[in-house]
Design a protein that fits this description.
The protein has about 350 residues and is α/β, with parallel strands linked by helices. The protein is built from 14 helices and 9 strands. Helix 12 links the parallel strand 7 (about 255) and strand 8. The model has no long low-confidence stretch (mean pLDDT about 95).
Length: about 350
């Protein structure tokens, strides 16, 4: 199996910079658009054969160094007894938000078997694709809590912040329940055959650093410590979180995924210990000319001058408007230009 992704995440020598893209299986690809004509996102994610097809399309089309299992971070909600749906253009919708002690007490104990279709999708991918590994992922506790408390996405996340400040002990209880769930969910993916595990924290940038350190970081540390026994490299990815970088380096992941707002060199300078970095091309660069794309990708590569411990990715997911040929050009350029390392 091609191992440069795993080696880079562990800081080991690689022949060239590995690359995969968040949302590389998505609406910019014709095969996925065809699937969506007759199936919802949840239908695809909950049907292993369809999830495998969606996961494989970009791997078959581009020379990316890994697949990423087709799933959604909200899938484990069902294992807590939470009713939810995903609406086009709106994202996750939770009709009965979780905002009180009674709501939290009413959550059912999480059973990983409730999401074993994700494990089946990983096993199905591994049966089809022998060369390139697959990345498993989950939502981080704060981001999942924000969806549960708000009832969906929000601009201000007022209810989430209200609960955090009005009843921090109750907020922490919810984070603890979601942390337990996340550990079980990622262990399921690891044991199904994932080669790396990523935690998405889309909304953590809302928090001041004190609240992140007090409420969120301890749960992240517990998750990554629990996953260490699986023997897989782990990645923590967050957005709009440049003010948290120093604290993010202490969450316990092997690698830090970075959005496009801060150069990788500036991130590395703020870390108290060596960490692999992942990222961080602006997804919008894929919408411009190929020359502009090459310049932007070259700038990202130049931020990691020794070429080690770097996985090229976008600073967030592939945009639906992205031309597939731009993705192909980016992947080829990174492999051709990625600096070789002797591991020193």
């Amino acid at each position: 199996m091609r191992d440069r992704l795993v080696r880079a995440l562990r800081g080991e020598p690689v022949d060239t910079t590995p690359i995969w893209l968040m949302r590389q299986a998505g609406r910019y690809l014709p095969g996925y658009r065809e699937l969506r004509r007759t199936h919802s996102i949840l239908d695809i994610a909950r049907t292993p054969e369809l999830a495998v097809a969606a996961t494989l399309e970009p791997v078959r089309r581009f020379d990316v160094d890994a697949g990423v299992v087709f799933a959604d971070i909200t899938l484990p909600f069902a294992g807590l007894g939470v009713d939810f749906r995903i609406d086009a253009g709106q994202g996750p919708i939770v009709p009965h938000p979780i905002r009180s002690e009674e709501d939290i007490d009413g959550l059912t104990p999480f059973n990983a078997a409730s999401v074993d279709f994700v494990g089946e999708a990983i096993r199905g991918y591994r049966a089809e694709e022998k060369e390139r590994p697959i990345v498993g992922f989950a939502g981080a506790p704060f981001t999942l809590a924000a969806y549960l408390i708000e009832g969906g996405a929000s601009r201000e996340f007022a209810e989430t912040r209200r609960l955090l400040y009005a009843d921090p002990e109750l907020f922490d209880r919810l984070l603890d329940r979601l942390s337990d769930m996340t550990i079980a969910y990622l262990r399921l993916q690891a044991r199904a055959g994932a080669s790396a595990l990523q935690l998405f924290d889309t909304w953590v940038g809302l928090l001041p650093i004190a609240e992140f350190v007090d409420h969120v970081r301890p749960r992240l540390q517990r998750i990554f410590a629990a996953l260490r026994s699986e023997g897989l490299p782990t990645i923590y990815f967050s957005t709009s979180s440049a003010h948290l970088v120093g604290a993010l380096g202490e969450v316990g992941a092997d690698a830090l995924g970075v959005d496009w707002r801060l150069p990788l060199g500036a991130v590395r300078a703020q870390l108290s210990r060596p960490l692999a970095l992942q990222g961080n091309l602006d997804p919008g660069a894929l919408l411009g000319s190929h020359e502009a794309l090459r310049q932007a990708a070259r700038a990202v590569l130049s931020e990691v001058p020794d070429g080690r411990a770097h996985v090229f990715n976008l600073g967030h997911g592939v945009l639906p408007e992205t031309p597939p040929e731009a993705v192909a050009a980016l992947v080829d350029f990174v492999h051709a230009s990625g600096r070789k390392s002797d591991g020193r």
